[in-house]
Design goal:
It is built from ten helices and 33 strands. The chain is of the alpha+beta class and about 600 residues long.
């Protein structure tokens, strides 16, 4: 179900969630209005690295946290790597320098490392490619890129081949690693990019996009290149710009699909802002609202959430800056994470329950971490976040000349790996508390279900012989029940705007009302003379019209994505079916622009 249980139990569920978080050692600090819960977490300080570093890759290989390459004090590249084992970091020599190079953990368990800056202070690019074997903790140089690259992205395909694209202050293009030894050019790109996003599709294609070119200039129009197909533009990305950060990242980090089922889906952080070249955060203001885009094949839609992603610290510490804006998905826990930092040096993590619509959010925060570099995090196999090395000043800007050696683990994953205030709770008390919560939850759901079922479902009467006059009474009663049910359906749509959920089904409404989907569909057909889908589309079109009337400057694509439509083509077709006019005709008659 997309919306959980019944509306009467939503408050109970929230209380239970917060109680469970508290029981797990994560004290809840605040919950106000439509804000997401704020939960305090206690990070674990890991041993410091042997070499302070920035511009390095962070990943897990062979079950161990690993850092590779980057540069150290003075912006000097280091050809070293380190892995965490036995409570300490072990330093290794690499074959080549990979400062802002590419690192990709392959399905084989080995790690492909390629390219990077050639000289000190991030100057130039390199060809060098090597492979790291976590079983032997060894590096082997074996080849070179087709063209020199820095700040590129790489993606392994189902075939075992690897797509590589992106560059820094040099030409760009798409090349392919055959999985064994050779790198060959594939095709040029429409727009040259730095650390682009790479999204696989169910057709074996790869989408390539970024909001910045190779010289870090912001793009006015986001063009999506394809490995096999023709480039295209996405209207949604004209306003909601992708968030990128100039550091090595894991291209598949935001993957939430299911390869076995042929479902390829990603989450991408975006920002709605106009003052692209200003820094409002330096003046204590957020630089536009951050949101999440769901990418399924070539379809881009805003992910509906129960509340906006927090842009200001609930603790009064000014704006939260999500400039390391890559989303990391824990598919085991069905949660995705977006990290931000406050001017008070607190780390903020937005947790996104991406399987629900609208998706619930939880904001985790730490105490101030003055020694933390707030580098791009890595997701551990246990579902926690590791932030290792990097550098950051209190004005949010990075300092490449004085990186840190600090390493932190943020406990968000499975509780067997969490070391926090949970240890202060006696085990027996914790289990008793969870048992009581479970009993309350089940009891409340049963009570509400029975009451709703009694109100909505037809009452079966004892059989008796009736005259022809008596037989007309049940029909009138049935009509009354249908009208009552339709009134309750309409109330849900009007007050809670359930139609904005792109995946809304009759079963979801039925769950909210304590009935079944057949009664909902039959009721709409009987009272309105239309299918559930037609009924839903009427609400969505009406909402689009209302938005465009109330906000004359709003663009049409903003309105229809907000209303729950998933594509431009379906919206235009449905709009004409419902209104008898094209959007252009309606806008002209209404005196709107909607351009």
């Amino acid at each position: 179900m997309a919306f959980g249980f019944f509306s009467e139990t939503m408050i109970l569920y929230r209380l239970i969630l917060l109680l469970c978080l508290a029981a797990a050692g994560a004290p809840v600090l605040a919950v106000e209005g439509n804000q997401c819960p704020l939960v305090h977490v206690v990070p674990e300080r890991l041993p410091d690295l042997n070499t302070p570093r920035e511009g390095h890759a962070v990943f897990c290989a062979g079950g161990e946290l690993m850092v590779a390459g980057g540069h150290t004090n003075g912006f000097v590249p280091t050809a070293t790597a380190e892995y965490l084992s036995g409570g300490e970091w072990h330093q290794l020599a690499m074959t080549y320098i990979h400062d802002h190079g590419t690192a990709l953990v392959l399905r084989s368990g080995c790690v492909l490392l390629a390219g990077g800056s050639k000289e000190e202070m991030g100057v130039g690019q390199t060809y060098g490619v090597e492979m790291y074997d976590p079983a032997s903790h060894s590096f082997t140089g074996f080849g070179c890129l087709d063209q020199k690259r820095t700040l590129a992205s790489a993606m392994e395909l189902d075939s075992g081949q690897v797509v590589i694209t992106g560059n820094w202050y040099a030409g760009d293009g798409i090349e392919m690693f055959d999985g064994r030894k050779f790198f060959t050019p594939v095709k040029p790109v429409t727009v040259e990019r730095v650390v682009p996003f790479l999204f696989r599709t169910s057709q074996g294609d790869v989408l390539i996009l970024s909001d910045r070119d190779t010289r870090d200039h912001l793009s006015d129009t986001i063009v999506v290149d394809r490995l096999h197909g023709e480039p295209f533009t996405v209207p949604l990305l004209q306003q909601w710009k992708p968030l990128t950060y100039n550091a090595p990242t894991t291209a598949d980090a935001g993957f939430i699909g299911d390869e076995a089922q042929g479902h390829y889906a990603y989450l991408m952080a975006v920002r709605n802002f106009e003052r692209t070249r200003e820094k409002p955060e330096l003046k204590g203001q957020p630089a536009g609202q951050v949101a999440v885009v769901l990418v399924e094949d070539t379809v881009f839609t805003l992910l509906p959430t129960v509340c906006p992603i927090p842009m200001m610290s609930p603790l009064g510490a000014g704006p939260i800056i999500y400039d390391r804006g890559y989303i990391m998905a824990d598919r085991h826990a069905k949660q995705a994470y977006l990290c931000g930092v406050g001017k008070d040096k607190r780390l903020y993590v937005v947790s996104i329950g991406y399987t629900e619509r609208p998706a619930p959010l939880t904001l985790y925060c730490t105490d101030p971490l003055p020694d933390c570099g707030f580098y791009v995090p890595a997701l551990t196999p246990q579902g926690n976040l590791a932030i290792i090395g990097g550098s950051s000043k209190t004005d949010y800007d990075s300092d490449n000349f004085t990186p840190t050696a600090s390493a932190w683990l943020i406990p968000l994953g499975r509780q067997d790996d969490v070391t926090s205030a949970a240890s202060l709770w006696p085990a027996s008390l914790l289990w008793w508390l969870l048992a009581v919560v479970a009993v309350l939850l089940v009891s409340a759901s049963i009570v509400v279900y029975r009451r709703r079922r009694k109100d909505v479902l037809p009452v079966r009467q004892p059989e008796r012989v009736e005259s022809h006059e008596e037989q007309s009474e049940p029909e009138t009663s049935s009509n009354n029940r249908s009208e009552e049910l339709l009134e309750r359906i309409s109330q849900l749509m009007d007050e809670r705007h359930l139609f904005r959920n792109t995946d809304l089904k009759a079963a979801d409404l039925a769950a909210e009302l304590g009935t079944n989907s057949r009664y909902v569909s039959d009721c709409i057909r009987e009272c309105r003379g239309m299918t559930f889908t037609q009924f839903l589309n009427e609400y969505r079109v009406g909402y689009v019209q209302r938005l465009l009337r109330q906000h004359p400057d709003m663009k049409v694509f903003e309105a229809y994505t907000s209303a729950g439509f998933t594509s431009e083509r379906s919206f235009f077709r449905i709009f004409k079916d419902v209104t008898g006019m094209t959007t252009s005709e309606w806008l002209s008659r209404s005196g709107q622009t909607g351009e």
